[in-house]
Amino acid sequence: MNRIQKHYYRARNPKGFWGMRVIKNMNGKRHAALPEWVFENIKPSSDARVLDMGCGGGANVARLVAMCPDGRVTGLDFSSLAIEVATDLNYRAIKDGYCVIAGGNAMQLPLAREVFDMVTVFETIYYWASLDIGLSEAFRVLKQGGTIIVANELDGLSQESNEVSRAVNILRIYTSDEIESCLDEAGFTDIKSIHDEQRHFICVTARKP
Q1: Looking at residues 94-112, what average pLDDT do you find?
Q2: How many CB atoms lie within 10 A of CB 69?
Q3: SS in 3 state form for the chain?
Q4: pLDDT tens-digit map of 172-193
Q5: What is d(CA 115, CA 90) in angstroms, rounded to the nearest whole number?
Q6: Residue 64 — φ and ψ, nearest 5°?
Q7: In the chain, what percentage of residues exceed pLDDT 70?
């Protein structure tokens, strides 16, 4: 197994020593560029209830908590190690009642219908068993008028995207057009995409009518 394969296999469900290194990398400066770019273009309201699907080590949860001082942020992840790290990172917000970190699968969210004003999905759809099912679950838990953000560092068009796709068979890298199509099928409207062509970042947003 080469270096690229090892990285993405470990990132799928981080465990143990190497899993901890992957999570620390997720929370590091390099991976901050994508959410910083996204939140320059779209922000939740200060009182929003937000779900971060596939929250990893909780760095984006912390960003969302800072943007929603009168709201509540839920981070959800499949990895028990990620949940532990995200809980530690957001300990104060959890204690003060502004944040919840929970375990769960994007294919069957352990959450009630129409709870959230926004759902964020950063760098995680690569690993989903079904993009259609995951987006349908996001649609289910969003309130009417709620917004979903799907953002990736790999745009499905770059040389890096092609190399990763060939090297790692557990991944599915999507273009913005493919994400838009699945959002439409899930029932979303007002679907829009932005693309940082230099860094190959993509962000697709949509609204639940």
Answers
A1: 97
A2: 10
A3: CCHHHHHHHHHHCCCHHHHHHHHHHHCCCHHHHHHHHHHHHCCCCCCCEEEEECCCCCHHHHHHHHHCCCCEEEEEECCHHHHHHHHHHCHHHHHCCCEEEEECECCECCCCCCCEEEEEEECCHHHCCCHHHHHHHHHHHEEEEEEEEEEECCCCCCHHHHHHHHHCCCCCCCCHHHHHHHHHHHCCEEEEEEEECCCCEEEEEEECC
A4: 899 999 999 999 999 999 999 9
A5: 21
A6: -70, -40
A7: 85
pTM here is 0.89
Residue 172 burial (CB count, 10 A): 16
59 is written with which tokens? 């760095």
Residues making up the chain, counted from first to last: 209
Res. 12 pLDDT band, cuts 50 70 90? low
- Rounded CA-CA distance 61/53 in Å is 10
